[in-house]
Each structure stands twice: as C-alpha cells, then as structure tokens.
Write a structure and sequence with these properties.
Layout (H helix, E strand, L loop, with lengths): L7 E5 L4 H12 L4 E5 L2 H15 L3 E5 L5 H13 L4 E6 L14 H29 L2 E6 L12 H20 L5 E6 L8 H4 L6 H6 L3 H14 L3 E2 L3 H12 L2 H13 L1
Length: 261
C-alpha cells in the first residue's frame, strides 16, 4: 500500500509538460492534488488515471489563469470546499519566439499577463493562507533564460527574470512565516514548449534537451530541502556559471547563436 500524505498540492498548467509530470510525481508520493489548466479534457483524463493508479483525491479546476478574477474565484471555490493548499507549484506559463517589433502586441502582453501578473496573483493569494497557518511551500517555475536577455525571446526572458527575482526575494521574506519559496530554472526540455512557442530547435538545443521527469524531481527535492533556487542538469549549471563569469557581450552573443542559430 502506498504511503498517503494528506497535504494538498495545487499545480497550475497541469494539463501537459512539467505540470503533468509534477502531478504524476506528487501523486506517487500520495498527495491529494488540485490540477489547474484551461484544457479540461486533458485534466480530466490525467486526474482519472492518477486516481486509479494511486488512490488519491484529485480535484480538477478549469481556469484561465491569465484572468486574475478567475484566480480569485478558484481560491474561493477551494476555500468553500475546505481545501487548504500546502504546496503550490506555480508552473503555468507561455513563451513565443520571434522579433519583438514583429510580434503582435496582444501576444506580447498575453505573455506578461500570464507569466508575470497572474503568477504574482496566484502566489500572493495562496501565500496569505499559508502565512495564517504558519507553514507552506511554493515553487515558482522560471527558466534558464531568466539569466539572459535573449534576442527573439525578449519578453519571455524578461518575464522569467521577474519570476526568478520574485522567488529570491520571497524566499527570504516569507521564511519567517514558515513558508519555503524555491525557484526552478529549467533549460531546454522536452515538454512541448518549443512547439507552442514556435521555437526553432537548433542542433545545439537538441543536444541540450532534458526530459521532464529529472527536471521535476530536482524541483521537488530543492523545495523539500528549502533551497532558494535550482538549475537542473550539469550542463545548465555550467551555463549559469559561464554567464556569471563572463562579460555580457560575450555570453549574450554565444547564447543568442545557440538559441537562434
């Protein structure tokens, strides 16, 4: 019989990619789950599979996370059901490759709304509950691009830099309230992000590709250990060190070539 952990985990962007993998790994630990995304059919299929395999409670919530009002309503529904979120995996996000000027303004602002504004709202709302209880864990999913200003990913990289700096600040700010905040910064991963972002997969990127499972496992371990952030994969760690150790003109030029060909 599997060990049950009654602490609820809320996962945003749970219908695919990292979100789906977070759901599978936390289900394997016996946690009850709240799965949140826009694609209801995929959420329901995942929820049913996890219920049958792990005998856990899974709540499905179809929410457009780009709407702060819908985020507030989600919180209210969970409160009415008596579900207190102990672990928040703030994973939902959206990227788009292309020239900043050529990109439609609506598309750029949609990235800012989901990756910055809505992530901030979700974190704020559920952190308030955690502070009242004196405990909780929050994982913010950023990106390796948070360390770089990346041509043709200008808005996405800037948004993820916000997530990284927010997480670093909240790690210290909320620690006194019994809340752990950790930021996960994955590199190139096989999650379907590249297809959704219309990203060109250069030969170098294909070689750097990681599978979702070890990335998610690294994030969960870092959160459990109370770390401020984590970059999964030795090559990605080396890349961050290279960014830190070299002038901007050099690492910006090299990584631009890797990302854009």
């Amino acid at each position: 019989m599997e060990t049950k952990d009654n602490s609820w985990v809320l996962i945003t962007g749970a219908s695919s990619g990292f979100g789906e993998e977070f759901a599978r790994q936390y289900a394997g630990q016996g946690h009850p789950l709240v799965l949140v995304a826009r694609r209801l059919d995929r959420l329901q299929a995942l929820a049913e599979a996890l219920r049958q395999q792990h005998r856990i409670d899974v709540v499905v919530e179809q929410v457009d996370l780009s709407s702060v009002e819908e985020v507030i309503q989600l919180h209210q529904r969970l409160h009415e059901r008596g579900i207190a979120i102990d672990i928040l995996i703030n994973n939902a996000g959206h990227g788009l490759q292309g020239s900043f000027v050529d990109c439609q303004l609506d598309a750029a602002l949609a990235m800012v709304q989901l990756d910055v504004a809505s992530l901030t709202a979700v974190t704020h709302i559920f952190a308030q509950d955690m502070r009242k209880r004196g405990r909780g864990k929050i994982l913010l999913v950023a990106s390796l691009l948070a360390y770089l200003g990346m041509p043709n990913f200008a808005v996405y990289a800037a948004a993820k830099a916000y997530v990284l700096r927010l997480g670093e600040a909240l790690h210290r700010e909320l620690k006194q309230d019994g809340i752990t905040v950790t930021t996960l910064c994955p590199g190139m991963s096989d999650t379907g992000f590249a297809t959704a972002a219309h990203q060109k997969l250069t030969p170098a990127l294909k070689q750097l590709m990681m599978q979702p499972a070890p990335v998610v496992r690294a994030g969960i371990r870092a959160l459990q250990a109370g770390r401020i952030n984590v970059v999964p994969g030795w090559v990605n760690k080396a890349n961050v060190f290279f960014v830190w150790a070299t002038p901007r003109w050099l690492h910006q030029a090299i990584f631009s070539q890797i990302m854009n060909g």
